[in-house]
Amino acid sequence: MPLSSAQHEMESMMSDQQEQGHRKQDEGHPSGGSGDEHAGHEQMFRRRFWICLAPSVPVLLYSPSLQDWLGFSMPAFPGSFWMVPVFSIIVFALGGIPFLRMAVRELRDRQPGMMMLISLAITVAFVFSLATLGLVEGDPFFWELVTLIDVMLLGHWVEMRSVRQASGALNELAKLLPDTAERVADSETEEVPVTELSEGDIVLVRPGGSVPADGKVVEGRSELNEAMITGESKSVAKKEGDEVIGGTVNGDGSLRVEISATGDDTALAGIMRMVEEAQKGKSRSQMLADRAAALLFYIAVAVAAVAAAVWWAIMGFDDEVVRRVATVLVVACPHALGLAVPLVLAITTTMGASNGILVRDRIALERARELDTVVFDKTGTLTEGKQSLVEMAVAGEGDEDRALSLAAAAESDSEHMIARALREAAKERELEPAKAHDFEASKGRGVTATVDGIKVRVGGPNMLEELEIEPSERLGRFAEEQGEEGRSVVYLVEEGKTSAAFALADTPREESREAVAKLKELGLRVVMMTGDSEPVARSVAKELGIDDWFAGVLPEHKDDRIQELQDQGHIVAMVGDGVNDAPALTRADVGIAIGSGTDVAVQSAGIILVKNRPLDVPRILRLSHLTRRKMVQNLWWAAGYNIVALPAAAGALAPFGILLSPAVGALLMSISTVIVAINAQLMRRYEL
Ligand code: ADP
Ligand code: MG
Questions:
Q1: Could you give the 3-state DSSP secondary structure of residue 438?
Q2: CA of 610 to the centre of ligand 1 (A)
Q3: Could you report the per-residue pLDDT of 205-230, keeping only the tens digit for each?
Q4: What is the DSSP string of 447-485?
């Protein structure tokens, strides 16, 4: 049974919805995920179980077959014969009808499943037992009917509880935010609900307190525990000017924080939205499980029919035929099957989130296990992306300051790291670049602008190639030398001639080398792709231990390169950060965006690395493998057990003296669900 139909069932239980409402209020926290729906069920099943217990007792005590079997008797009184049927009818009405109502819902949705099977089983048992009171020959099995109903209620109650515990991880995220915050007003502070905070408010975060929303430290120093958001277990030092994330926990210092984002705009809300979305999305294995669950319904009905026919033929019609039918129907209930995959995925997504890996697309995560090639963008992904000007050269008699000033002016509107580096260098030299007009950026090549009446361009080798300009000899040599060192070179072009060249250095991320080594160890091919020139690519690749690279790739060709690899039969992941990486991220089998990258990149990717660490890429693979393993295990516990349980329920073991009663069948079914839930929970113990 898929989770969605569990929702429907609940909606049909009007009277029980109130209880759920209360529970939500009690908890006082926003809710999400499927945990709450199950909590509503849990309450209902628990209540019904306790209510049904009392009328079940007289049924058991006055049941002739049970008395015979256990060798006891009860005092008879006028009408004592009617004790058993009357109390059975009460139990059926109180404990059985809810299942029937949910079955009606399944029928209406044309998705016959668990509730249908349970309803068939208890109805067959009930109607047969009533019929024995006058219509047909045979012993009634009222006491078995009431135990079946009781076990079903108890089983569902316990199942729902394990399910809630396994899937409530999203709520844990919601609980990170405190309810109130201390807002600084003039010289004092006032306590206000977090929902009343707005941008620009200053809040006081005391030692040990939680940061109520995203913001910037304006006063104080402390160390924050950000593990819940980024997965970083070490505390992070924060001082004036640093950004803090809502939901993280303050250390020993006290901080005054200026709020920059509240409510749905915070990082935490973003994470929750993504986890929720990912949980809604159906994965491939989920669809497989749903189909199997639907199939199991028909298999169960067929096996029940065959079992009935065979018993009838061999032993004649009696209560045992009905008992076999009921047991088969109960054992085959695909409850566990509907939960096997969603439970694992719920835990996977939250495990990922707490390790800095946000899964937006579950199919991407499932795919990650099959990867054989990982393509990394260079700038901003393998490297910090914080470029700085390290050296420059001018053509002929040129003046360095003038050249840098012109370049910075032309770059004044660009968002590119190179532009930022040039502007900063100009500032350091206390130059005051003139105003630029007619700015135009050409992605992956450079920029054009009019400065002081001259047309100026700043760009890399790609741009020169496009303009069909050769750098002057001196600049060409400069570029070659710098390229060997792994530095990117951009040219200043005035009136169609190169007049200066700037060498920019960018440090590779500390972990890039390690990440590359890990991936290679796992047997993957690592490829670097960059818009930068060949010598720079070669030098960075060598430093990081990468064997293959594509250099000078224009943004519009990045996805073609991915396609080429795919055409060769590779399953490819692309890791990137920039706008220029977006098409490649979408094209790749698994698109992985650096969290600090551009929004476009983040939205094109299936997985986001919050901590900007390339080392998280091998972690994704591990998570993917773990997810897969747990799913397969769960599918076996959920569906595979029927290979043994169904024949046993049908009576195949009768020659060995083993006959399952309907209640034992119900017990087995519930145990299978509980095992599935526990098995998913065990995932949490893995370190990624
Ligand atoms: P990557 O693929 O490594 O992330 P980009 O595609 O952003 O790099 O840029 C590729 C090349 O284009 C840069 O190495 C640089 O030579 C040139 N370039 C792009 N934008 C600019 C700019 N604003 N100013 C100067 N050069 C630029
Ligand atoms: Mg980049």
A1: strand
A2: 24
A3: 988 888 989 999 999 898 888 766 66
A4: EEEEETTEEEEEE-HHHHHHHT-PPPHHHHHHHHHHHHT
Take atom 22 of ligand 1 and give the residue whose Cα is closest. Answer: 446
Q: Which CATH class is domain 385-507?
A: alpha beta
* Closest of 468, 461, 510, 463 to residue 487, by C-alpha: 461
pLDDT exceeds cutoff 60 at 15 = no
Give 377-419 as a DSSP string.
EIIIIIB----EEEEEEESTT--HHHHHHHHHHHTTT--SHHH
Residue 469 has which token pair?
């300009």
377 is catalytic: yes
Q: Is the pTM of this model over 0.90?
A: no
Q: Which residues line ligand 1 (CB under 6 A)?
A: 377-380, 411, 414, 416, 418-419, 444-447, 458-460, 462, 488, 490, 530-532, 555, 578, 580
How many other C-beta atoms lie within 10 A of the C-beta of residue 446? 28
Phi–psi pair at 517, nearest 5 degrees: -60, -45
SS3 at position 494: strand
What is the C-alpha to C-alpha distance for residues 74 and 81, in angstroms, rounded to an integer? 11
pLDDT-derived band at 28 (thresholds 50, 70, 90) equals: very low
- What mean pLDDT comes out for the span 35-50? 77
Task: From 530, 556, 581, give the residue whose CB has the most ligand 1 atoms within 8 Å, as the site to mutate.
Answer: 530
Q: Which of 325, 468, 492, 340 is nearest to 408 (CA)?
A: 492
- The CATH number assigned to the domain with range 356-383+509-623 reads 3.40.50.1000
**In which band, very low, low, confident or very high, does the pLDDT at 309 lie, cut at 50, 70 and 90?**
very high
Choose the most confident range, by mean pLDDT, from 294-298, 533-537, 559-563, 602-606: 559-563
Count of helix runs (H) and strand runs (E) in the chain: 27, 22
Tell me the pairing of strands 572-576 and 373-377: parallel
Separation of alpha carbons 597 and 19, rounded Å: 45
Contact 630, 344 (CB under 8 A): yes
Name the segment(s) of the chain with CATH classification 3.40.50.1000.
356-383+509-623
Q: Where in the chain is the domain with CATH 3.40.1110.10?
A: 385-507
Q: What CATH number is given for 178-212+214-261 in this structure?
A: 2.70.150.10
State pLDDT tens for residues 76-86. 888 888 889 99
CA 203/CA 192 separation, integer angstroms: 10
- Ligand 1 center from residue 357 Cα (angstroms): 28
Using an 8 Å Cβ cutoff, are 433 and 426 in contact? yes
Question: 384-406 b/e with 16+ CB inside 10 Å = b?
Answer: bbebebeebbbbeeeeeeebbbb
Q: Are strands 373-377 and 388-394 parallel, antiparallel or unpaired?
A: unpaired
How would you classify the pairing of strands 180-185 and 188-193? antiparallel
Please, are residues 553 and 532 in contact by the beta-carbon 8 Å criterion? Answer: no
